[in-house]
Amino acid sequence: MTTIATRQNSVVRDAIMVLKPRIALFIMLSALAGVVVSPGVQPSPARMLALLAAVFLAAGAAGAFNQWAESDLDSMMKRTQRRPFVTGQFQNNAVWLAAIVGLLAAAVALAGLSTNWWAALYTFLGAFTYGVVYTIWLKRRTWTSIIVGGLAGSFAVLAGAAAVDPQISTTALILTVVLFLWTPPHFWSLAMLARDDYAAAGVPMLPVIAGDRVCAWVILGHTLALSILALVPCFYGMGMWYMTCAAAGGAWFTWTSIRLVASPTRSNALRNFFGSLIQLCLLVVGAFLERLIGTVA
């Protein structure tokens, strides 16, 4: 009985992890930011939670499709060799593909029924961009794949904003571009850590084809651009709470990126990776505080 229970727990754990829940969580937070920065009547708590759940599940479906489609690549990289489609825990077959597509369809329907179909469209486009455009069309071909992949988080912002008003506000559009610029330095920092893995698998990530030093400079350029752009919403009605959090997050991410340029080591790449997460979290916190006690109406 103990062995059966252990196996069942393992299957449940792997089923959750195949959704890439950490990535899905940050995409969901991007949608939350889109909601709270948009002027107008906010969705009810129930509708808000339904939308956020829909974005999370759609991102999870895209993450699962990524692992389903890339089991051959994952088998060649140390950090991904224990994923369930590689180990055989889950079979890389049409049944799993149907389940992933079904999950995405349910998520899109939930977004549309809980808010509106513009939000549902953006929810779908975010998952499609990551699952098909990034994973299938670009990742094995070009180092620019992750730049296009940044649209996945950007569409989440648009989904949140559209839930308030399908006519997207200027602030939400600016945050959309910020998220587009945020994804490449976030991911390239991780790619520097896994550069040998990507090289072994033949994936043309920027650190592989250009080296760590060039990659660090490109990361810094993106970081400076998005940190400055993240302050622009202060000219469109966002107040002190947002400005403080955006400035603090941008300063920290810029500092860790400068350290990475000065010394493009793996330890500094890891610090920069966490710096990007801190910056995104502070942006969401600042936007949320502005909605609760600040100037967004």
What is the element layout, followed by pairings?
Blueprint: H1 2-17, H2 21-36, H3 45-69, H4 71-74, H5 84-87, H6 94-114, H7 117-138, H8 145-149, H9 151-164, H10 170-193, H11 195-201, H12 206-210, H13 212-229, H14 240-262, H15 266-293
Structure description:
Helix 2 packs antiparallel against helix 3 (45-69), helix 3 runs antiparallel to helix 9 and helix 6 (94-114) packs antiparallel against helix 7 (117-138). The relative contact order is 0.12. This protein has 15 helices and no strands. Helix content is 78%, strand content 0%. It has two domains: 1-143 and 151-165, Orthogonal Bundle (Tetracycline Repressor, domain 2); 169-297, Up-down Bundle (Four Helix Bundle (Hemerythrin (Met), subunit A)), CATH 1.20.120. With 297 residues, the protein is an all-alpha fold. The protein starts with a helix and ends with a helix.
Short recap of the structure:
The protein has 297 residues and is mainly alpha-helical. It is built from 15 helices and no strands.
